[in-house]
Structures are given as C-alpha cells and as structure tokens.
Amino acid sequence: MDDQPFSPASIPIQRSLAGICFLAAPTEMAQASRERLVGLYGDTPFARADVVVALGGDGFMLETLHRTLSTDVPVYGMNCGSVGFLMNPFQEEDLKERLACAQDVELHPLRMSVVTRGGAVEEALALNEVSLLRQQRQTAKIRISIDGRVRLQELVCDGVLVATPAGSTAYNLSAHGPIVPLSANLLPLTPISAFRPRRWRGALLPATAEVMFEVLEPDKRPVAAVADFTEVRDVASVAVSEDRSVRTIILFDPDQGLSERIVAEQFTV
After folding, report:
1. Which helix (H) or strand (E) segment is 191 a member of?
2. Phi, psi at 61, each rounded to 5°
3. Which is deepest, 10, 17, 215, 216, by most CB within 10 Å?
4. Superfamily for 110-242?
5. Is 265 left (phi over 0), alpha (psi -120 to 50) or beta?
C-alpha cells in the first residue's frame, strides 16, 4: 500500500458526506482497517449511506460495485489487497476531504442472457467481462454473430470473452486483448487460446453491438458462461450487450482516475 500523504485540492465539497458506509473484505488487514476507520468517522448502514468506502482488493471492489448497481451511491475503494487497479491508496487521515475531491466515473455493465441446454434462461450483469469457457478437456466450438449477422462460423478455442472498457485491463488483457479507453465506446471481443482460425486475434465492437454466441456440439464439447462471478454451466447460447439503463459510480483521487490508469497500463513493461 502507498503511505504517501494525500493533499486535498482546494475545491468545495460537492457531495453529501453525512453517511459513510465502510465495507471490508474478510482479510485480517481489511477488517483491522475498517475498525480504525469506523472509530474515526463512524459507520452508516448500507441502505442509508451517501457513499460506500470499500476496503480490500479489486475482487472485493467488484463485489461492492455490484451491490450498488442502480443505487446512485458512489463507491470509493482503498487498497487493502494486492493489485488494487480499481482502488485508491490506503490512508486513514483526511478521508472526508478525499471523498469531497474525488472524481466520479460512471460505469455501465454488460448484460448476459443465457439459454442452457435444458432450455432454462438465466441473466446476469458483468462490469468486467462475459466469458465462455470449455468445461472439459476438449476445445469448445462456438459460432459468433454480431447484430444478427454471423461473423465467425466456427471458433475452436478454450473460450472467448466480451469485455467492458473498464474490464479490458483484466482477463481480456491476460488473453492478449486490447486495452480500451473509457471514452472509446468500444467493446473488445477476444478469443482465449484460439486453435481455429489460428491467427484470429479478436475484434473491437461498437458499444451498441449485440453479440450472440452459439455453442456447437454442446453434448461433446460443453461450455460454461461467466459474468464476473456468476457462472452458468452447460449453455446452448449466450447473448451479450451493454445495458445503459444500469450504472454504478466509482470514485478516484484527483489525477488518479480510471481513464488515466487505463492509458498508463498500456505503457507498463
């Protein structure tokens, strides 16, 4: 964690700070940090909070953002974990000043609509990515359509994913997909260990695109679909599109916003 002091900018408070809710990951460090912060600033129940402070790593931050979807309650993360790409540096002092000066970033999730082999329909939201993954030893075979038009008749692979711009630095990047700035209004479509076509590296789709995945030979090559941490197994088809009717708000210290982090990540060696 970064223990450098924070110097709040001289700008007026723009959001209510009457109720801060502290949520912590179930780690010793995060729980101890929460105790100290509650002692300093008090604690408001989640249902009545004006702002949520999440203490943990990126995984816990993602869980917290899902809890605040469509509530308009912003989330300010402080790193008590490992990676902390979505988090601000941990510091106990001047928390209200940091919250007052924080920059808002509005994120919209992907909506995953799954039809299973048994005919059941399930839906889930993803702030990082929706991924399709082979369930067994054999590769998956998947047909990909964009806006009702078949673009790839058969992808033989370990899997394939659609990421949000915010999630383009997560699993998408590990699968060698492109990092996408928040302002680009693009969604990366990235194969995972593609065998055929071997040289296909994916595509960049407009944020308005509706993506349909159809699983070929599902009996022999079963596939699971995952939206962040919601998994559906034995899928027949998966539709993915951005849901602009749902949003979550994340807060960052000045000059440390998500857009800057996404650009900086492209120069990390």
Report:
1. strand 186-192
2. -60, -40
3. 215
4. Probable inorganic polyphosphate/atp-NAD kinase; domain 2 (2.60.200.30)
5. alpha
Rounded Cα–Cα distance for residues 45 and 29 (Å)? 21
In the set 58, 104, 158, 219, the catalytic residue is: 58
Q: Which residue has the tokens 């702030």?
A: 127
Decide if domain 20-107+247-265 falls under CATH 1.10.357.10: no
| Residue of 120, 84, 124 whose CA lies nearest to 2 | 84
Q: Tell me, yes or no, if 94 is annotated catalytic.
A: no
Strand partners, 161: 131, 190
- Whether 2 has a pLDDT exceeding 60, the answer reads no
Query: By the 8 A CB rule, do 142 and 214 touch?
Result: yes
Q: Is the pLDDT of residue 3 over 50?
A: no
Are 12 and 44 in contact by the 8 Å Cβ rule? The answer is no
Contacts of 105 (CB under 8 A, 6+ apart): 182, 249, 250, 251, 252, 257, 258, 259
Q: Which residue has the higher pLDDT, 16 or 96?
A: 96
**7/4 Cα distance (integer angstroms):** 10
H or E, element range at 36: helix 28-41
> What pLDDT digit, counting tens, does each position of 76-118 carry?
999 998 777 889 999 999 999 999 999 999 999 999 999 999 9
Strands annotated E in the chain: 20-24, 51-56, 75-79, 103-107, 110-116, 121-126, 129-134, 140-146, 149-157, 159-163, 186-192, 203-206, 211-216, 223-227, 230-232, 235-242, 248-252
* Of 121, 149, 115, residue with least CA distance to 223: 115
pLDDT of residue 1: 38
